[in-house]
Design brief:
By secondary structure, the chain is an alpha/beta fold. The protein is built from eleven helices and nine strands. It folds into two domains: 38 residues, no CATH class; 224 residues, 2-enoyl-CoA Hydratase, Chain A, domain 1 (Alpha-Beta Complex).
C-alpha cells in the first residue's frame, strides 16, 4: 500500500448525504434541473422555458376540477387481444406491464366533476399507457364518456395525447375512428358542446378522428399535433417543411385550431367556454 493510500484511508470521511431521487426534475426541453416541488407547483410547466410536460390523468383531473374533487367513471369492458397478436412479446404481456406501471386499465380515463361550478365530463388520454394509443378499449371508453355527458346533460371535454391507433389490434383499432364520429353526432343532437384540448403529442388516427371534431379546438403551448411524422411527409412530397409546422402555434397561425392556452389559464378558459356554449347547464 502506497503512502497516498494510507493517508487517504486514514481520513475520516463523513457518509454521503442521502438525497431523494425525486427531489429534482429535469426539463425535457431546456434540460434545466428544477426542484420537483417548484415544477409541480407550476402545474408541471418549466418555470425557465415554459415547456409543458406530459402529465398523468389524475394530475390533469386534480388541476381541472373544483377543489380537485371528481368522480372517476368506471372503465367499460372491452375485448382484449382480439388478434392474439405477438411481436417481440405478447400483446397481453404489454397490456399487463402497462397496467402495472400506470395503475389504469387502459389509456383513456373519464371523470365527472365541476369546473367553476359547471358540471362537465372529462376524458384524458394517458400517454404513459402504451403511448396513449387508440384501441378497442379506448374507443369504448370514449363512447362511454360521451354517453355519460349526454345523460348528465353536460359538455364532454377530451384531452388528447396519443401516438395513433394501436397496431396490435389492426383494423379493429381503426374502426374506433368512425365509431367515435357516430357517438359525437349523438352528443350534438343533444345540443351539448364537445371541446377538444390537444396536448403533446396528438398524432395518427386520433388526430384523424375525434381530436379534430371539436366545437372548439384548444392546444397547449408547443404541443406536437399531426397525422404522419415530418420525415415521412418530407420523403413523400420531396420537399423541406418549415420548422415547427406541426406545433400548436403554427397550426393556430394557419387556422387549424382555435386557440393556444397556457396550462395555468386552461381551467378558467374551459369554464368560460362552457358558459358560452351551454349557459343553462349549471351544477345543481
Amino acid at each position: 500500500m502506497s503512502w497516498l493510500s494510507r493517508v487517504r484511508n486514514g481520513i475520516p470521511f463523513l457518509p454521503k448525504r442521502q438525497v431523494a431521487d425525486n427531489l429534482w426534475h429535469k426539463c425535457g426541453k431546456c434540460n434545466t434541473m428544477i426542484f420537483t416541488k417548484e415544477w409541480e407547483d407550476n402545474l408541471c410547466v418549466c418555470p425557465r422555458c415554459d415547456h409543458h410536460d406530459r402529465i398523468r390523468s389524475h394530475q390533469r383531473f386534480g388541476m381541472l376540477f373544483d377543489g380537485g374533487d371528481y368522480v372517476k367513471l368506471a372503465q367499460p369492458d372491452a375485448r382484449e387481444d382480439p388478434l392474439k397478436f405477438r411481436d417481440t412479446k405478447k400483446y397481453v404481456d404489454r397490456l399487463r406491464a402497462a397496467r402495472a406501471s400506470t395503475e389504469e386499465r387502459d389509456a383513456l380515463i373519464n371523470a365527472r366533476g365541476t369546473i367553476e361550478g359547471r358540471t362537465a365530463v372529462v376524458g384524458v388520454q394517458d400517454f404513459a399507457f402504451m403511448g396513449g394509443s387508440m384501441g378497442v378499449a379506448v374507443g369504448t371508453a370514449f363512447v362511454a364518456g360521451v354517453r355519460a355527458a349526454i345523460e348528465a346533460e353536460a359538455p364532454y371535454i377530451i384531452f388528447t395525447a396519443a401516438g395513433g391507433a394501436r397496431m396490435q389490434e389492426g383494423i379493429l383499432s381503426l374502426m374506433q375512428m368512425p365509431r367515435s364520429t357516430v357517438v359525437l353526432a349523438q352528443l350534438r343532437e343533444a345540443g351539448l358542446p364537445y371541446i377538444v384540448v390537444l396536448t403533446d403529442p396528438t398524432t395518427g388516427g386520433v388526430t384523424a378522428s375525434y381530436a379534430m371534431l371539436g366545437d372548439i379546438q384548444i392546444a397547449e403551448p408547443g404541443a406536437l399535433i399531426g397525422f404522419a411524422g415530418q420525415r415521412v411527409i418530407e420523403q413523400t412530397i420531396r420537399e423541406k417543411l418549415p420548422e415547427g409546422f406541426q406545433r400548436a402555434e403554427y397550426l393556430l397561425e394557419h387556422g387549424m385550431i382555435d386557440m393556444v392556452v397556457h396550462r395555468a389559464d386552461l381551467r378558467a378558459t374551459l369554464a368560460k367556454l362552457i358558459g358560452y356554449l351551454a349557459p343553462e347547464k349549471e351544477a345543481a
